Amino acid sequence: MTPTLAEEGLTIPDAPSEPGEFERSLRATRESGRKLLVAYVTGGLHDEWPDVVRAVADAGADAIEIGIPFSDPVMDGPIIQEASELALRDGASPVTVLDTLRTIDAGVPLAVMTYYNLAFHMGHERFASLMYEAGVRAAILPDLPLEEVGPWATAADPAGIETVMLAAPTAPDERLPRVVARSRGFVYAVGLLGVTGERDALAESSLVIARRLKAITDKPVLVGVGVSNGQQAAEVSQVADGCVIGSALMRRVVEGEGPAGAGAFIAEVRAALDES
Amino acid sequence: MSLPEPSSSGRFGEFGGRYVPETLVPACQELEAAFREAWADQSFRDELDGLLADYAGRPSPITECHRLSAELGVRVLLKREDLNHTGSHKINNVLGQALLAKRMGKTRLVAETGAGQHGVASATAAALMGMECKVFMGEVDMERQALNVFRMRLLGAEVVPAMSGSRTLKDAVNEAMRDWVATVENTHYCLGSVMGPHPYPWMVREFHTVIGKESREQCAKLLDNEIPDVVTACVGGGSNAIGIFSGFADTTAELVGVEPAGGAAVGRGVPGVVHGMKSYLMQDEFGQVQEAHSISAGLDYPGVGPEHSHLSSIGRARYEQVTDDEVIAAFQLLSRTEGIIPALEPAHALAWISRDRAKLAGKTVLLNMSGRGDKDVGQMMEILG
């Protein structure tokens, strides 16, 4: 007899019925008429990374995703792979990144984006509480799809960590509502078939997935993966509530533009969003 | 079949599952449904059996090693997967997956490879069936296995170096998964071992159960209806091992997997999640995956298929470790005593028999000779001078 999901300890708890701190903040910003901009920064990349976080917050990011580097980032393209590898070489770990994060007063909500094994290895409860103590209120685990999220969510929900689910262009119509229902913080719309990275033009699929999601939820819908500059951010935010910018920002950091360059880029994207 | 199906969530006990990016979930679900349907369809089975017989050269024989047995004091039987077309057991799985991919309307295969055997097999199946094929191979492995790189290209495949991380098999899997995330609509990921997200560990096992099934029948004849005392095979991801174990899981035969000391996921790992599965995994104190180090590119992998983790945890199989030096000695031993040059991977299993020959004295051991050594001759020439 094949065991049930409950017997396997995989029951997926319903998402909290009310938005948490992270989502409330994004909703409030959206209601003020502003498009949402979330910036991704690889934690532990060079000593200057806390300054990069502060700079992008000051430049107009509405929330920041802190990447905790993992050895095998399968959802990431070359730039974030390189940023992760460099950070790991500098000695970054979940503990060092979260410890440093406590000292950064960015003034905007913080999420962690990392891969599931780091949470699994440390233990779900401990990982969730360490994140919370470091000021993090949301988690994005791109290799933890709906069917596997149960054990993590069971620990994260009561710890005050909102688990952001990814919604992909490949999801059939019957699947999307289930993904959306389990998501808190925002819904991460994957803009294209592919891994993170810059693209010359905005993929048509990013508008399609944003439209499909906006039709079924009032949770903030942000498009990430392949949103590369202010113009693309503005274009996708005609449909979505906003976007996530990662590789385009981290390329500038990897190339040595420092906090100033990172801030200038985010300011540029912010301006494009505000003008649109 | 004597090894059970995984649970509906794709688990063998606590191991397995489907830890993939959301983009790939529907593809894994479709693949599971397509495999389940094809595997129950006699016409699919007949077509695959036809290819295995007329193209791959099955059944592979069992060779009794008289001189080796005399030298070790252990009766050693070899299941000769090295005699298959393309030189290893990998062809069993690849023909199955390529047929299935065609049935699903996919026109392109993407694969990872370590030593190149799975890459060569994938390129072969793609050539046979008129499909496109792209193979990711660690940059380090491309140097170690330059001949196989040439073979794949000759067969019409594109070979792309994996440049990240340890630049070996682990990173080739990452690159193949990244490619699949971007191309999932027309592409089948032809995964080369009993690892990855559900349904791969189960599906790849099923395509290799032919090894165990044949061995069981051949042993019955050879051993006068007795079964071997021990069945052994090398374990990287563990596909050849699970294939031969499957024929003996319901017997009293002891099942022994042999891992390289530098890539011993079962022996030295703890449960972790990477490459779509929960399994034993070599990792550091924070859960970062460690790089494996083995003389054999095919076993240079820090994880292991989830069913092996399960078989180990329930005590049905046990896992031994051997060093590179022991493998080099075994490679020479089999060549000298039997006129069979083994691949470095199955030489691991022989290295264990040789080291533990006192404990195994008088026993009958069936070893899965998963591949031939042609690909390793250049590397061994350098090592042995």
Automatic annotation (TrEMBL), chain B:
Organism, as annotated: freshwater metagenome
Highest classification ranks of the organism: unclassified sequences, metagenomes, ecological metagenomes
Keywords, sorted A to Z: Amino-acid biosynthesis, Aromatic amino acid biosynthesis, Lyase, Pyridoxal phosphate, Tryptophan biosynthesis
Transmembrane helix among keywords: no
Cofactor: pyridoxal 5'-phosphate
Single GO MF descriptor: tryptophan synthase activity
Known pathway: Amino-acid biosynthesis; L-tryptophan biosynthesis; L-tryptophan from chorismate: step 5/5
Catalytic activity: (1S,2R)-1-C-(indol-3-yl)glycerol 3-phosphate + L-serine = D-glyceraldehyde 3-phosphate + L-tryptophan + H2O
GO cellular component: cytoplasm
InterPro entries in UniProt: Trp_synth_b_CS, Trp_synth_beta, Trp_synth_beta/beta-like, TrpB-like_PALP, TrpB-like_PALP_sf
Domain Tryptophan synthase beta chain-like PALP: 56-371
Gene3D superfamilies, alphabetized: 3.40.50.1100
Name recorded for this polypeptide: tryptophan synthase
